[in-house]
Amino acid sequence: MQRQKIKNILALSTTGLGNLVLYTPVLRALRRDFPESHITLLVASKTAGNLMAGCKEIDEVIVINKSKINILYWLKIIKHIRNLRADLVITSFLDKSFKVALFSRLTGARYRVGYKNKAYGWLYSHQVPITEKKHEIEYNLDLVRVLGLAIRRANEKAPFISITPLEEELANDFLLKNHVSPKELLVGVHPGSGLAIGSGKRWSREKFARLCDLILTIPKTKVIVFGGQEERYAAEEMAKFMRKKPIIIAGDTDIRMTTALIKRSVLFISNDSGLMHLATAVKTPVLAIFGPTLWWKNSPWGLDNVVIRKEMACAPCYNYQNIECKTLKCLEMIKVEEAWQKVKEMLND
């Protein structure tokens, strides 16, 4: 591949918000090695598009609606993409499907990078094999390594999201209106895990509540509960078990304000979720509760983060459609006391 001829690059990350965060190191690598190229990022939700606003590694964001089955809609999207005259298309680890492979071929790009597949891998010019268990960031970076892009330093693998000083100021104003002073410690909590299909990843609301009550015994500390509108119910149900009510903002803030508030937090406690990865991207230490999901692929990136999980022969078993153990023993075995011990250790550090 002649790098000097790569004028336009199309990067695809059309799955979850957390997966987009884990794709950002790819964008960094592309911008570093193709500083003069026009880089377009294709995402599948307005929230994802807003999250990437102001990202200096890309020049343009295109938001599509993957759920649309109208052929005219997709012909219009393909026409728009072809007008970009992309020379290179880079997919993401979770964009492993025939539809994505066909889409990359229809862009007209000479170079198309995706994961190896016997049935439709021929649609890519460069195929990447999956040979071992590793973190999703590493899987994503394999898609640029196959092009000869070197990832030289550990910090080049770290996910990132940029928040402006103005957004940080607005977050502080928001907290002041909720009676949180700049001198108080703010601990973020995310008892949800996305849509209802992600409910199998959730530690119990009662245990989250007990942990939050212990956190609130620390002087000058406030707990703020995060989540989307679909997780508001989980946040409110958790609060019912608490002696002292937290600040609940689930569903009340857009993704940029949510990110700024997570950045303001000294610790973020969460199930395996997109917001967990968002916290790592703004360098807020994470305490993650893991049950049936792939901890080696989905764990929060970075040495400052801690995962609590139980080693079980049947875990991980989570695949969105079915969880073999209906009682979720891997989550039930995690005690409030061990989470509280980790919280104290992390806050002391």
Please provide a written account of the structure.
With 349 residues, the protein is α/β, with parallel strands linked by helices. It folds into two domains: 3-157, Rossmann fold (3-Layer(aba) Sandwich), CATH 3.40.50.2000; 165-348, Rossmann fold (3-Layer(aba) Sandwich). 36% of the residues lie in helices and 15% in strands. The chain is built from 14 helices and twelve strands. The protein has helices at residues 17-21, 24-33, 46-51, 71-83, 98-106, 136-145, 165-177, 205-215, 232-240, 255-264, 274-281, 295-298, 329-332, 336-348; strands at residues 8-12, 38-43, 60-63, 88-90, 111-115, 126-128, 185-190, 221-225, 247-248, 267-271, 286-289, 306-308. The strands form two sheets. A six-stranded parallel beta sheet has the order 3-2-1-4-5-6, sandwiched between helices. Helix 7 crosses helix 10, helix 8 (205-215) crosses helix 9 (232-240) and helix 8 (205-215) packs parallel to helix 14. The longest helix has 13 residues, at 71-83. The protein is globular, with a radius of gyration of 21 Å. The N and C termini lie far apart (47 Å). The mean pLDDT is 92.
Shape: globular
Beta-strand percentage range = 5-15%
Classify the helix fraction into a percent range: 25-40%
CATH superfamily of the largest domain: Glycogen Phosphorylase B
Question: Outline of this structure?
Answer:
This protein has 349 residues and is an alpha/beta fold. 36% of the residues lie in helices and 15% in strands. Strands 3-2-1-4-5-6 form a 6-stranded parallel sheet, with helices on both faces. A 6-stranded parallel sheet has the order 9-8-7-10-11-12, with helices on both faces.
